[in-house]
Write a sequence for this structure.
């Protein structure tokens, strides 16, 4: 790897970190004065300010070999060069929920490698059932946007492995971005508890090695997103022109009916024209007819179609094409990674903005591991974590406006985790980096607020129950604390009454006389009274607990979590989803 090895310097004065004799003496004198001041501060018990370390120069850059490997579907052997060495090589004719933001992740890594090291990337891939592994070492010709293939060959697949492995050498700074990388991995483990991640940093120094394993908690995966057609109110002028150029339909009626969702034949006829006397008239105008060739539409006619799409009323698209993580998976992910004291999740119903369906899933947790006090926001877009531009995001702004005290939650002191996952066929990102979703779309703002509030309502119920249980425990503790004194006082009073009573004159009823006789005969003593009072307190506490459970709708004993291990092999099964569990029925 030319350029990535350490070489001895021949002329020190050429380098940016070169230090003259005078500058060195000045620096050493300053360090000596700083050490003297620190010694005096230590002697007087004052706090010591940490001295700022000099920033790393460009010449001290670190290089990393980054390897990403999975056991997924793999890639076809012939498509690998174009998939990695050609930018914007995809073809999206339909509409589909996709993970990621640009579809350029691997290509951006390749371009960054080319800019920082000039080295190519290496790809290993194999599909299920293939007896070979595809190996490709390639670069990209940025000017011509074509792959520059160094090696592209098939190798023996002895381990019957399937998936993909990408290896790239880049310049980076682990110390600066360590927290961001680990935070990203942790959020990925939250939103995808059905996958396991293994992160390793192998350094030249063994004590700096890092190994973190994010375990899998479930094998219930979200459904695969379904490709759908465009909604009329969500298309622009360029997209309409592209659809016209690519359609296989002959006339305008068929084009509207088959290239868009929620346009039935009768509705398409109403949009185009209807026969009046000997000519056609309708919303599009007299120069349109249902049987006219769609390829013959002029630019003005296409503009009229686009204008009508923006003004006409169409039924909202369904959310059947969306693939959310699932409320069950979100709950498992939060519990697995944060270990909170309480957690509540909520999945809303599909809604629509600008002709695009979207769905909000939310979770709110209290307490947990590595969670700071106050609001901790976790944002996801199509099951991908969003790390940057958090302050401008719709989730952060909406969560900050919620009155948490109404739900018995202290916003400044409690450790609050707010998790919001937005899935849609089009995520309305803001900015060129696509790192946040703006708070200017009322439908999304309302859905996010409702989802978080539904989680808070669930938590409020749990918090109230916990507070009532704590009050009952405190009341029981106070009563129990006074039982010895009360027993001693009651027994003393009864003993004095028994001694001073007149046997010839009847002063008490039959029941009272019986009790006093038992006191005189020592059948009733202080320990017996103490035991009876303790039993009474226990009985009252139990009855109050039953009454509270009946009011809360709990009619059974507390349940215990049971984890059923999977059977061997690959049997057929049916999953029945519930917000807090999934029942798997084996067929």
């Amino acid at each position: 790897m030319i350029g990535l090895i350490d070489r001895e310097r021949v002329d020190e004065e050429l380098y940016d970190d070169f230090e003259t004799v005078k500058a060195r003496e000045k620096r050493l004198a300053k360090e000596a004065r700083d050490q003297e001041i620190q010694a005096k501060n230590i002697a007087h018990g004052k706090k010591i300010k940490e001295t700022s370390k000099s920033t790393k120069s460009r010449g001290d850059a670190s290089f990393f070999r980054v390897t990403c490997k999975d056991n997924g579907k793999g890639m076809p052997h012939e498509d690998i060069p174009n998939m990695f060495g050609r930018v914007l090589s995809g073809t999206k004719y339909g509409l589909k929920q996709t993970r990621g933001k640009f579809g350029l992740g691997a290509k951006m890594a390749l371009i960054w490698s080319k800019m920082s090291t000039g080295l190519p990337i290496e790809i290993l891939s194999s599909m299920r059932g293939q007896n070979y592994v595809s190996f490709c070492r390639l670069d990209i010709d940025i000017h011509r946007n074509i792959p520059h293939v160094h090696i592209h060959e098939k190798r023996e697949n002895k381990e019957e492995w399937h998936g993909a492995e990408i290896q790239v050498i880049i310049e980076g700074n682990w110390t600066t971005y360590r927290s961001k990388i680990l935070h990203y991995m942790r959020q990925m483990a939250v939103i995808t508890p059905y996958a396991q991640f293994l992160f390793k940093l192998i350094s030249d120094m063994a004590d700096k090695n890092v190994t973190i394993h994010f375990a899998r908690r479930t094998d219930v995966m979200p459904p695969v997103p379904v490709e759908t057609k465009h909604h009329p109110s969500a298309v622009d002028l360029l997209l309409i022109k592209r659809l016209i150029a690519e359609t296989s339909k002959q006339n305008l009626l068929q084009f509207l009916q088959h290239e868009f969702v929620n346009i039935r034949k009768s509705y398409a006829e109403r949009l185009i024209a209807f026969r009046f006397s000997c000519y056609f008239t309708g919303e599009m105008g007299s120069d349109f007819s249902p049987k006219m060739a769609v390829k013959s539409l002029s630019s003005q006619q296409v503009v009229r179609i686009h204008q009508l799409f923006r003004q006409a009323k169409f039924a909202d698209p369904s959310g059947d094409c969306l693939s959310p993580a699932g409320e069950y998976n979100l709950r498992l992910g939060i519990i697995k990674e944060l270990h909170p004291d309480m957690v509540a999740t909520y999945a809303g119903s599909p809604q629509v903005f600008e002709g695009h369906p979207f769905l909000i899933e939310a979770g709110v947790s209290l307490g947990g591991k590595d969670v700071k006090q106050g609001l901790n926001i976790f944002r996801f877009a199509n099951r991908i974590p969003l790390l940057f531009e958090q302050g401008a995001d719709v989730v952060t702004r909406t969560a900050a406006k919620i009155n948490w005290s109404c739900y018995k939650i202290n916003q400044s002191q409690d450790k609050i985790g707010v998790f919001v996952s937005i899935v849609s066929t089009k995520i309305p990102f803001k900015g060129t980096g696509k790192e946040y979703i703006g708070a200017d779309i009322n439908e999304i703002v309302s859905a996010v607020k409702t989802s978080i509030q539904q989680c808070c309502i669930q938590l409020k119920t749990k918090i109230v129950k916990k507070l009532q249980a704590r009050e009952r425990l405190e009341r029981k503790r106070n009563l129990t604390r006074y039982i010895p004194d009360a027993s001693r006082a009651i027994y003393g009073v009864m003993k004095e009454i028994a001694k001073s009573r007149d046997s010839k004159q009847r002063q008490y009823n039959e029941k009272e006389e019986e009790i006093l006789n038992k006191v005189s005969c020592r059948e009733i003593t202080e320990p017996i009274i103490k035991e009876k009072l303790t039993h009474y307190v226990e009985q009252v506490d139990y009855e109050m607990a039953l009454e509270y459970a009946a009011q809360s709708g709990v009619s059974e004993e507390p349940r215990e979590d049971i984890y059923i291990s999977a059977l061997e092999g690959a049997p057929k099964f049916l999953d029945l989803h519930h917000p807090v569990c999934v029942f798997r029925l084996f067929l």
About this structure: Residues 442-500 form the longest helix (59 residues).
